[in-house]
């Protein structure tokens, strides 16, 4: 039998409790991530991308109503791990997470060098000296000079702070780094140079990435495969090449048409309508209200179909038999 | 009634709505709280005029002083030198009460949507606050305006969002609340610092269209700070490119995007990608080095340590003035001499 993928996620669910109901933020997600592979997760605001990241690393808020499914690392199921075991075996060691807006969450009164060395000291029990040496290497990796180890967060610009946060996620040399909107708040030059760094790290250290973003153009800088989320579910999962040039799901097609391009003079299109409430998602296709290709069958929920090798689509048009 | 507050309804003032002359905003840097180490020259000699109803964008690298400029326009920082005139009145001459009236007329979308919302207030209260401060005491009237503002930014149905707390919203939803809060007082000018950075393309286009519509309906003057050069064309008239505390290029938006003149603007545009799987195969060209220190900016042209066209003996010695290489298109670079 072939080696299991680095990460295998099946039927992942995360629901929040709110007044008068529950929010199904992650509603049955399946995907794999291979070694040295970058999976990009795209989707509009509020579709559940950050919730998915939090579910993968079990950084859950207090109002969780239900958390379930399967998360396997190297073929080993981790869902039944105790919090203690998960922290020791998985978080930081194997998978690290750069949270959305993490650069604003650096501790203002601790030097950034110490903050980057912190996971090594608390999670791996390294001595201060060895940890600081490794922190310096991590700074180097993300393109921040070692002189900055001694600085406080407020003494760094936004782009510098974002690199520090990336250094923190890389310092334990995990197999997989999950990054939630790592460059969305940054200017184009800083964004481009961080993406250049990530490409180099992927090439040189064999690291795998899950890059969560709403920024389609930037995501194409790293993507091997793309998963597009809509209302808590994946609606298309495909190779980067086919996704960017020939998307299959009606939502993917409209999303690609809404991406503004630098030299385009016509105003980009937006997708009319709104995503459904995650507190009460419709029984049929979740995109149906906004879909120009909607037909009778769409009143039932479509499954995931595989019209082509390496391309999965949650849409009746791509089921065997198509529109008939 | 104070001059600026009285002007709320009056629009006799005919000159530029906003006039900024040789503006400097420096921050003193001190060690141990008292020893003066130097000044961070965040805004270092910026001048421009805005017409009523005009929409402009400031673009530039992280740390080049965009937010400091915005905050100075809002009266949140005192200029170290130079002046800001709004409708003909200098901000410097306003007393505390007048400054408050001024701020109520300028909507502000601050940069970081996460830090912008008080965590212990629900959305309804967050939006009620500015209305109360400005004396809207009628509760149904407040609620009507809050609902309208939420619906405008497409947080709909508004009722469902009013009872939620910020942590229950996604990043993009929080950003829209911040925009709604800036609009709820129906301002005369809106200063929006990266207002759509957390939003996907479709919602971004929609919000920018919303601002465009409000601008047309209310003759709103818009000042955007953005790094999103690919949408800027559709929502602004002019662009100002900033580098290290200064404006290095200014032009009509189409002319700047199609014919960037300053080497720094050219580098910015070259760093932008359209979505394409091939992007993953190669690294993107970015000028080497970091943005310069604003404590001790480089002599001569501030871009010279990173500029591929730098001319020794000129660029590293003398500060380039503004040239006009194309009609109405200004660029501070010795290449245009
Ligand atoms: N702790 C919580 N309690 C209740 N609802 C929540 C909570 N956290 C998130 N939500 C809701 O769950 C949905 C998904 O949120 P999530 O933060 O995962 O979205 P996202 O895709 O990351 O969006 P963005 O691109 O704006 O960051 C949203 O509707 C949000 O309002
Ligand atoms: N209150 C302050 N005290 C000291 N320095 C400051 C202060 N505010 C800003 N600075 C410094 O002034 C410079 C310009 O900062 P500013 O926030 O205006 O940049 P920006 O262009 O908005 O950057 P970004 O794109 O990262 O938001 C930076 O070097 C910053 O560290
Ligand atoms: S299943 Fe139907 S409604 Fe849903 S995306 Fe496909 S065609 Fe549109
Ligand atoms: S003045 Fe000289 S260094 Fe500055 S941008 Fe022009 S060519 Fe480059
Ligand atoms: Mg998110
Ligand atoms: Mg800023």
Write the layout of secondary structure elements.
The complex is a heterodimer of chains A (324) and B (337).
Chain A: E1 7-18, E2 21-33, E3 38-43, H1 49-57, E4 64-73, E5 76-77, H2 83-89, E6 95-98, H3 112-124, H4 128-142, H5 158-170, E7 176-180, H6 188-205, E8 208-213, H7 216-219, E9 225-230, E10 233-239, H8 240-245, H9 250-258, E11 305-308, E12 311-313
Chain B: H1 3-6, E1 18-31, E2 35-50, E3 55-59, H2 66-73, E4 81-86, E5 89-90, H3 96-105, E6 106-109, H4 113-116, H5 123-133, H6 139-152, H7 158-162, H8 171-183, E7 189-193, H9 201-218, E8 221-225, H10 229-232, E9 238-243, E10 246-252, H11 253-258, H12 263-270, E11 323-326, E12 329-331
Parallel strand pairs in B: 3-8, 3-9, 6-7, 7-8
Antiparallel strand pairs in B: 1-2, 1-4, 4-5, 9-10, 10-12, 11-12
Helix pairs in contact in B: 6-8
A few lines on this structure:
With 324 residues, chain A is of the alpha/beta class. Chain A has helices at 49-57, 83-89, 112-124, 128-142, 158-170, 188-205, 216-219, 240-245, 250-258, and strands at residues 7-18, 21-33, 38-43, 64-73, 76-77, 95-98, 176-180, 208-213, 225-230, 233-239, 305-308, 311-313.
């Amino acid at each position: 039998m072939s080696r299991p993928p680095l990460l295998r996620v099946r039927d992942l669910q995360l629901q929040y409790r709110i007044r008068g109901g529950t929010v199904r933020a992650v509603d049955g997600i399946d995907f794999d991530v291979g070694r040295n592979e970058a999976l990009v997760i795209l989707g509009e605001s509020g579709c559940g991308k950050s919730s998915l990241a939090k579910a993968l690393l079990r950084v859950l808020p207090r109002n969780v109503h239900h958390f379930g499914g399967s998360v396997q690392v190297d073929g080993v199921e981790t869902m039944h791990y105790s919090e203690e075991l998960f922290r020791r075996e998985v978080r930081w060691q194997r998978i690290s997470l750069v949270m959305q807006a993490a650069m604003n969450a650096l501790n203002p009164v601790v030097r950034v060098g110490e903050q980057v060395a912190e996971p090594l000291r608390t999670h791996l029990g390294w001595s201060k000296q060895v940890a600081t040496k490794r922190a310096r290497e991590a700074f180097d990796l993300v393109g921040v000079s070692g002189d900055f180890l001694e600085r406080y967060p407020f003494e760094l610009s936004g782009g510098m702070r974002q690199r520090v946060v990336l250094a923190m996620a890389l310092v334990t040399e995990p197999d997989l780094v999950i990054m939630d909107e790592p460059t969305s708040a940054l200017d184009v030059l800083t964004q481009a140079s961080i993406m250049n760094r990530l490409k180099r790290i992927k090439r040189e250290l064999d690291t795998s990435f899950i890059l969560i973003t709403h920024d389609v153009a930037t995501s194409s800088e790293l993507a091997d495969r793309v998963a597009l989320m809509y209302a808590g579910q994946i609606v298309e999962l495909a190779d980067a090449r086919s996704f960017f040039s020939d998307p299959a799901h009606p939502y993917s097609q409209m999303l690609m048409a809404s991406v503004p391009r630098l030299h385009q003079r016509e105003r980009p299109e937006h997708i009319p309508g709104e995503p459904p409430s995650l507190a009460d998602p419709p029984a049929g296709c979740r995109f149906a209200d906004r879909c120009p290709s909607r037909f009778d069958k769409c009143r039932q929920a479509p499954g995931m179909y595989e019209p082509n090798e390496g391309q999965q689509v949650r849409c009746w048009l791509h089921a065997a038999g198509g529109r008939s | 009634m104070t001059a600026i507050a009285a002007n709320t309804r009056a629009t006799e003032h005919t000159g530029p709505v906003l006039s900024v002359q040789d503006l400097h905003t420096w921050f003193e840097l001190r060690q141990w709280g008292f020893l003066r180490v130097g000044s961070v020259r965040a805004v270092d000699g910026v001048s421009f005029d805005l017409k009523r109803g005009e929409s402009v964008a400031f673009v530039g690298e992280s740390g080049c002083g965009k937010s400091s400029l915005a905050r100075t326009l809002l009266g949140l920082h005192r200029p170290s030198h130079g002046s800001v005139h709004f409708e003909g009145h200098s901000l410097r001459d306003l007393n505390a009460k007048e400054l408050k009236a001024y701020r109520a007329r300028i909507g502000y979308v601050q940069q970081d949507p996460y830090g912008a919302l008080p965590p212990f207030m629900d959305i309804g209260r967050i939006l009620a606050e500015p209305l109360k401060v400005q004396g809207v005491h009628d509760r149904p009237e407040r609620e009507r305006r809050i609902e309208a503002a939420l619906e405008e930014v497409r947080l709909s149905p508004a009722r469902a969002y009013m009872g939620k707390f910020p942590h229950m919203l996604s990043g993009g939803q929080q950003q829209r609340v911040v925009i709604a809060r800036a609009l709820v007082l129906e301002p005369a000018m809106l200063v929006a610092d990266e207002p759509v950075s957390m939003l996907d393309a479709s919602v971004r286009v929609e919000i920018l269209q919303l601002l465009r519509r409000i601008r047309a309906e209310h003759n709103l003057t818009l000042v955007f700070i953005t790094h999103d050069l690919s949408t800027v064309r559709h929502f602004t008239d002019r662009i100002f490119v900033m580098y290290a505390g200064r404006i290095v290029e200014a032009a009509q938006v189409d002319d700047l995007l199609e014919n960037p003149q300053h080497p720094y603007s050219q580098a910015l545009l070259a760093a932008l990608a359209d979505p394409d799987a091939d992007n993953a195969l190669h690294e993107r060209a970015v000028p080497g080095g970091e943005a310069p220190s604003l404590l001790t900016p480089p002599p001569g042209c501030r871009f010279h340590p990173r500029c591929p066209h730098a001319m020794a003996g000129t660029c590293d010695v003398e500060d380039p003035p503004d040239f006009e290489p194309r009609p109405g298109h200004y660029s501070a670079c010795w290449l245009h001499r």
